């Protein structure tokens, strides 16, 4: 095999109560990488589409490029050459794990072309290196679910300990990306560095409830647990119309609604595809009411991670 | 039915990472209440054994008495009279939920004698009132598991939302109660009121991991998640020989080990009864090495709560 086309899914990180520890993948949007072996050393980024010219073609600065580079070093094949095309099928800076999806698609494609010396899970550290380039720290809450699929818990970063949870089959995500920009670094800076013990206890209760709800298919419990007293109160200020959009989602039947990653996208979880579609529509309309355009996506929880096309 | 004998189990609250939100019940030790209807109004505490004379016989100050009183008011039978005997089969002030077990046994017995107007779960608020008398605040992390059995998550206190988790059948607790005293109020006072965001994230990861481990019978994951970076570092200072006892438990094969409630008892969880017995022995010996005597208990996770005898 000399060439491969891989699609990696977008992801919702944090998932209300699980700042830095929860994430899940959706079927779309996502990113596509076409990777082709070449006979001379070095990685060449031939083409990037869908980024409006915003992403760097320099390999060491490109999230997919750096992930492949680190991977090749690790497997002892630093001289293997590749030609890479990246097709962004999702908005940049949206809080949907755009850089993570590119890194995952890239390193997954490389591993396939090299004859799969590593397991899917073993690719995680290289995709995380791509994240470090994109947002300054090697987070795993987007890369983890994009690579592994499903709902993911990062129990620990040091050592890295990632757990995949099965999700109820009728659980659907509605994602709405408003056409506004939030800087990820601002979104992190706005967070309190010290949390009261009371809030920590509340948040832990919801973390426990969400995991239990997912594992026992208790939709009500999932809904009651989608509460964030630590991050959402701070970050929602950066998203105009946040309270109205959230209220519209709940009104339309969502189990819960919060910020996807560092925003500005919002996600909601619902029981059933029909409800999830109504929820997405209601959220878009609430943004529209103040003249903010948006893109909406409805998807089951993606269960497989990257896909060869 | 005019008289009943009820046994309610001891409990381990917090369970390492789950301060104020996790608790589980064990088969022994526990408390026994004998409750008898009488024809005249009022509750009379006839006898208390096993408390070395330390518990109040005044109904409004006794955890079982107050729980029954509040219960009778709620069901609209404030004039029903009872005679109560309380047999403490566990050490007081041990961190094993002694006051909770008494309150649970009392209110469960009263509900039986009154013809079960309330469900087992509906008895919780009255048992919590007993806790308020005993320790100044209406915690549910001992009362919840003692009343309901199993491993319990208190997702929320307001409104009260308690979830029962099934536990793996081969999961055993070793509990060692050293003959030292820790004041619960000191144990709460020593806690930091502000937690760093980093520690909160670590703790949430372990909370998520423990729930997932219990629900999927993943013993390794249970072990990796029994880590407490918030409360144990502060409270362990109040327990002489803590680090050595914990190390001895892990050395003997425990999945994890931490403080039971506010201490001084320590608990460990293990896979299998044989290991749990070795762990209890190792923990007792580690206390013994510095001349601290102790009582040890080994038990499966209790699954039923109070038991009519």
Written overview of the protein:
Two copies of one chain form a homodimer. With about 300 residues, chain A is α+β, with helices and mostly antiparallel strands. Chain A has two domains: about 5-165, Ribosomal Protein S5, domain 2; about 170-300, Alpha-Beta Plaits, CATH 3.30.70.890. Chain A contains ten helices and twelve strands. Chain A has helices at about 65-75, 100-115, 125-135, 145-150, 185-190, 195-215, 220-225, 230-235, 240-250, 275-290, and strands spanning about 5-15, 20-40, 45-50, 80-90, 150-155, 160-165, 170-180, 195, 255-260, 265-270, 295-300, 305-309. In chain A, strands 1, 2, 3, 4, 5, 6 and 12 form a seven-stranded mixed β-sheet that branches. A four-stranded antiparallel β-sheet of chain A has the order 9-10-7-11, with helices on both faces. In chain A, helix 1 (about 65-75) links the parallel strand 3 and strand 4 (about 80-90). The mean pLDDT of chain A is about 95. Strand 8 of chain A pairs antiparallel with strand 8 of chain B, so a sheet runs across the interface.
Briefly summarize what is shown.
Chain A is α+β, with helices and mostly antiparallel strands and 309 residues long.
